[in-house]
Structures are given as structure tokens and as C-alpha cells.
Amino acid sequence: TVGCVALDSDGNICAGTSTGGMMNKKFGRIGDSPIIGAGTWADNQTCAVSCTGHGEYFIRLTVARDIAAHMEYKNQILRDAGNAVLEKLTLAGGTGGFIAIDKSGNIIMPFNTSGMFRGYVKSDGEKEIAIFR
Amino acid sequence: GKYALAIHGGAGVMSRERMSEDMQKRYIDKLDKALRIGDSVLKTGGTSREAVVSVITYLEDCPLFNAGKGAVLTSEGRTELDASIMDGETRNAGAIAGVTDIKNPIQAALKVMEESEHVMLSGDGASEFARSKGLTMVKNSYFKTRERLDSFQNLKKREKEQARIDKHG
Fold first, then answer.
1. Which chain B residue is nearest to residue A117, measuring alpha carbons?
2. Residue A40: what pLDDT?
């Protein structure tokens, strides 16, 4: 799976996700990536999210939308919302993670499994690329 | 104005310990290029939507990642691709699922969002829609790489062996 979230200079955010799904999948199985609210979400009032991981868990927990809901209804900042939802995912037995950005350009990239490829860049020149264990 | 962009290249693909230095460098180079593409779009006043589509199109064309070219194979030995996009300003969204012949699924998802009344199209219908919008269509073989075919064949071999061991009568 690959994904991208962005904030532009007009203050608008967007999220996108693309995937080949699970190796050896059968029966036309679809994961969370194309499901709005599960693998992808964006709302200028809260955040833009792109997920990656074991899709069935992300669908059941509506992970992408849940992060935004934590911000919308609990007034949490992006980092707290992301941590809360990752904890829910972990407790449910789901593996994976997500990237998210808010309207102020704050970025989070939490995960609970190995082999995560991540990167970000900001208008002030701050940039990071990492492969996490 | 202020802008920012983040990308991911999947989860649990391969842990760092199992990757050679050369392989790590290849991944980092591709991620770096993807960031530079997105940065360039946003720096020149492009929208977040344009940045997301440009970056994901690049990653889909890169065979290292499980999306577009280089995606994993289904049990039947073909690739089936999914993609989605959502715009935070309008909360409009587009998605496609289970397609086998659209070169860049993220561009099809964008077309669904921008040029249809729907949110998600799947299978043959999604392909027909993409074709009607002038998107590049390819044979399924375009997506298959040597590495993915080898992984698939090894998996099938293991499955066959397991089935033989599990045969208790």
C-alpha cells in the first residue's frame, strides 16, 4: 500500500491511498484502502488520514474516520487522537499504522508493526525519510 | 503560505533487518523522489489534491511498493488494485476497487470524485468508467514483476506441500 496526505498553501488538506491488497487473496477480497472512513479520510476541520495494515481491522474500527471523530467530538489534538485510535487498533489485534496531517500542518505517523516506510516534508524545509523496524 | 506533505509505503512489507543496504537505499531514494514531487507541486501553488495524486501516481509506477506496478498477486495469480481519495475542503471522495487494467488507480479514484455522482466503482464497471475518461489502460501483465511472481510461486509451492502434509484421510 502507498498513501499520501497533504496540506496546501490555501489551507486545504487531502488524503489518498492505493494498494494491491493482500498477497494470495481470494473471492474478490477488498481491504480498507478504497473504503472512505476506513483507509482514507479528509476533512479541513480535523485531519487527512491514509492507513496501511491489516484491512479487516481498519474497516471494522473505521480507523481513518475515527481519528477525525476524536478531534471533532473530543476536541483532541491530532497526536492524541492518533494515539487513541492506534491503541484501539492494537487492542483489537490489528496491525499497521497511518499517516495524518491537520490544517496546521502537524503530522503524525504512528504504527504498531515492522517494515514501515515513512516520509514527510514541510514548507520550512524540514524533511525526514525513515524505514522503521 | 505554509504547506506540508507526508507519505507511506505500506506496512510489514519487509523489516529493515531483512533488507540489504542496497535495498534500503533503493527504498529511501524512491521515497525521497516522491517527497520532492509533492514538495514541488505544493511549492508552486498546486493544491493538496494535485500533490496527493502526483505522489501516489509516482509510487504506483515504482515496482518496489504494493500498488500499481509491482503489486502482489491474488490466489488466481493476477493483480487486483484499489485506490481512494478524499478532499478535505469539500469532503468529496472517490474510490475504485478490484480493478485489473487501470495503470494508475489513484487517477481513476480522482475521476470518480471529480467527474461522477458516485463515491466508489468496482471491477469491470470501474474499468469502463476509467476508459471513458481517457485514462491509460494496460494489460494485467504490466503490473507483474519478477519478484512478485517468485514470491507467489514460492507461496503456492508451500501451500501445496502443506496440503500434502495435512492429508490425514
1. B9
2. 98
- Give, in order, the Cα–Cα distances in Å from A89 to each of A69, A111, A120: 15, 10, 23
Angular region, A24: left φ>0, alpha ψ -120 to 50, beta rest: left
Of the candidates A90, A87, A92, which has an alpha carbon nearest to the alpha carbon of residue A76?
A87
Q: What is the ipTM of this complex?
A: 0.97
Backbone phi and psi for residue A9, each to the nearest 5 degrees, phi listed first: -70, -10
- Nearest Cα residue in chain A from B13: A115
Selecting from A8, A20, A43 the residue whose C-beta is nearest the C-beta of B67 gives A20
Please check the confidence at residue B108 and state whether its pLDDT lies above 80: yes
The rounded distance, in Å, linking the Cα atoms of B157 and B148 is 14
pLDDT single digits (tens) A85-111: 999 999 999 999 999 999 999 999 999
Interchain contact, A123 vs B106, CB within 8 Å: no
Q: B14-28 in b/e burial notation, b at 16+ Cβ within 10 A?
A: bebeebeeeeeeebe
How far apart CA A27 and CA B154 sit, in angstroms, is 21
C-alpha distances out from residue A79 to A85, A99, A129, Å: 10, 11, 19
Give the tens place of pLDDT for each residue, B36-58.
999 999 999 999 999 999 999 99
